[in-house]
């Protein structure tokens, strides 16, 4: 198709056919305390990248830049649209704060390999806490601040953590989210698993450490006080495939999976991605408007920009309402952002409020070279709109918590390939992507099927699911033998461009946040009036998808529907979190099922979305669909 596509294809081919040499070559850009001689040890259903290498990611993201004379360069720009505060940390300052907090953790007895839960909003101390864990070989597990106490407790227990690092809370438009009561509840629910809580106090929050009664589930310590007396810790060499972090994500069941990431493969892959996908280098200002609680934040707010010596922007705020739909463009101008990354939903939120991009015209965005989007499918309309308005390449790229970096993208640093609306372009180095049918056989080009990746996966991707090797096999490898099952469906066109169309499982994506409909169903079913429920992800113009619950009541119950709806919404907010944005409940007499008892979730979703649907011949009684059809029809009717 073009020169750049041919040249990239050649590089991609080498990454597959001459895998070991390719990745060993890439690994030379990282500073190792023991350089790897072996690229991969591959046992078929498990593999490990750079098994004989040793390194430290805190050293690679901080100290090495200082040693190279770039200690005074900006490492982090903290910009809070909530408090109008803006603060820059040089590499020197960030290293010193990290070394001190690593000393704090060590003085609390944190050992190598031990898991530390981090429950923090978008403040610099979240980055410090993550890198401090990496410095001493502890394994961090960051839990997103929009998650409820119950979800936090589940992660504490699964990770087997005894230390929790937190801040007073987060700032959301019009409200203060006080973390202290949430954490106290999580401590109660996790039954004494946590023995020490380290609290970073923020001004203006209702609860301070003095308000926490002695013996409230754990010993509560003040971050700032501990930091005053701690000795800085030096980075310790870590085996390349030892875990760097656990990051929990939703699967099909109610229990989130702890994705395990290594250090060596991750560093090599992120470095490759920064140069080739994002076209970014030392000194560039890289801004990922996401959250450190998500994988996008781990990789492209924290590790990757700092690894290459760029400046990362840590933004506490929203795309709209903080204070207006020009918030993103203000940050681009103020900090001279070169490369930006966010979720399509954020762009749709701006579109809704500022369709003519009047706010954009107020700001100088000449520094911006490209906008990258991921987290959910980039719909062609949003793609066209923002491309026309911004005048720089807008790149959709597809990846998952599991992979840690893009599976398919447009390698801008390599020489951007022609863009196609609706496509996340082509597979990246080391990803051998195939489209397979339900039996695991490859389908012909142009046909939609399950997207699978031939094993082994490239460096940087998950090395396991916390809790044992069987979890990786059961969740991802046994589905299509020889492949990793992504859980997404899609197709390749004749130019080798990949189109990712949606999930094949019960995972839904609400405003770029990944949720399990199974987990939502479990929570709704806790209500004593609920007999049965089904949750499906229906189309949403702003958030991509939203969760909709179909609920049947226990026989003989007569309830006030609006009151019950409010109770169910509240239940989801307190058990899962406000971020689930659960609001839609439809009460039905019975759920549509096949004779074998399978709920017709797909049919429900198709009816609500107004798509053609097929009623399986095995359905028990088609009349149960009538009220759902009528309600969907009424919802679509124009309001006169
Ligand atoms: N801590 C606590 N609560 C949080 C939170 C956090 N970090 N993030 C969101 N919430 C809460 C919100 O306050 C809101 O609560 P409410 O129901 O009481 O109002 C709820 O969770 C839903 O929030 P949100 O998803 O932000 O929806 P919204 O309707 O308020 O805003 C967008 C819509 C599009 C502006 C917003 O979803 C957004 O900025 N999305 C970007 C997504 C993103 O970065 N995804 C990361 C993947 S790359
Ligand atoms: P998460 O693990 O939270 O990052 O969510 C990963 C899931 O989000 C993927 O499996 C996809 O279903 C979806 N996703 C992420 N990026 C894209 C994209 N660019 N196009 C389509 N779907 C995407």
From TrEMBL:
Specify the superkingdom.
Bacteria
Query: For the AMP-dependent synthetase/ligase domain, which residue ranges apply?
Result: 69-456
- What's a Pfam family in this record? AMP-binding
Query: SUPFAM superfamilies in the record, alphabetically?
Result: Acetyl-CoA synthetase-like
Q: Which residues form the AMP-binding enzyme C-terminal domain?
A: 520-598
Q: Which family does it belong to?
A: Belongs to the ATP-dependent AMP-binding enzyme family.
PANTHER family in alphabetical order: ACYL-COA SYNTHETASE (PTHR43347), ACYL-COA SYNTHETASE SHORT-CHAIN FAMILY MEMBER 3, MITOCHONDRIAL (PTHR43347:SF3)
Q: What is this protein called?
A: Propionyl-CoA synthetase
This protein's species is Herbiconiux ginsengi
